[in-house]
Fold:
Amino acid sequence: MLLDQYAFGTLGERIVKVFSAVFRREDEVKFKEHISKSISKNSVGVYIHFPFCKSLCPACPYVRDIWQERMMKAYVSALKIEIGLVGEALKDLGLRVVDIHAGGGTPSLIDKEWGEVIQTVREHFDVSQDYRFGIEANPEDLTEDKAFQLRESGVDEVSIGIQSLFKTNLKMLGRRHGVEESLEAVEKCRDAGFKLINVDMMYMLPEQSIDSWIHDLKLASELGPDQITCYPLLVPHYTPFYKMIKEGRVQEQPNMKEFKRMYYAAVHTLTNEGYTPLRYYSFSRKSEEYSTVELEMVGPLLGFGSGAISFTGGYEYINTCSVKEYIKSVKRGRLPIAGGRNVAKEERAARYVAERLSALKLKIKDFEREFGEPFEALMKKSGYNVALRIGLLLGNLKREGDEIRVTEKGMWQRNLGGWAFVLSIPCRIVEEYTKTPWPIEVRVP
Structure:
């Protein structure tokens, strides 16, 4: 089978109905007006996209570009300009930044430059004293010197893309690092004093068995990271990996029955190793989790960089996915926004519920405080009530007073729904916006 946007059947179809969207290009004055009027809270998160990689992994679905020193320097300069432009546009709102996360691409390719970027954020926003700054990192970058340089530049948390501790899996995924580099990376990050270390592990790989997946997870837990995040290998049609599978150069993935077995193998293995589920896909030895996760769905999250997606809580917009056009735009003093859309209260409510159930627990009083409307009434208007009713009926969800919890049985269904959403919405946004730098209109899915 293929874990593409069509792999989830009717579940995928229901998600598409609730979350379908139209992004449109508008003039800069309109974009600024939408953003400033729609920010729902004073506390905001910041996402920074760093698109450069030394090599392009065939399965990666994100906005990325081949590393060039000259282009990188121009990009970091443009990032600082964009932060200033947005800060100026929102200066009267009294926003406080509580969380910063850099993704990519490969943010760990640079180090001292992150200190410059964070200083720019401080110059244009009120940054909370206890804010957190996390970056995604490739194991081969995390030498002893680099780990300490990142820490000195203000990086608090690191998410290491280990993916697997078996050489055959890494080779098949086109990863540049080796197993030994992964082992050393966790050790070096611990020595450097990062406050939280997450490692990413990947399953549903061609030729991967349940036993080898369990073995992989046990090896990862022996490294002692604070958090382990488990991702299935997703195969959007625009990635080279999709073509490789279709042409028979790589075997297809395990079937849906094996998918379920692998998922619960992760839940049970990591629980036995002393980890607690924070979300359906992440497991921790601490009570806190790696940066900005919930803000991507509920906002407010301000995105900077080429391909960054922002969500104010009422307005969603994406920067151009062309690195060259991004740099050109901000150096001319213009926001690099390629398209945006207003998000209705009903969809905001559905996003809120989906995000809270992603974290396995929804408190109805919190929901009603957020939206000022009875839970059942707003769920009915949003179209999400059907999924909730089915979940409660089948025992995937359990309601106790003011709280709806995801049961262990329901974690599988939540896992399916989460990845179906990723393939149908964010991946489709990236697919459409990488076709041309400044489309007039984009419909998703």
Notes: Residues 294 and 420 are 17 Å apart (CA to CA).
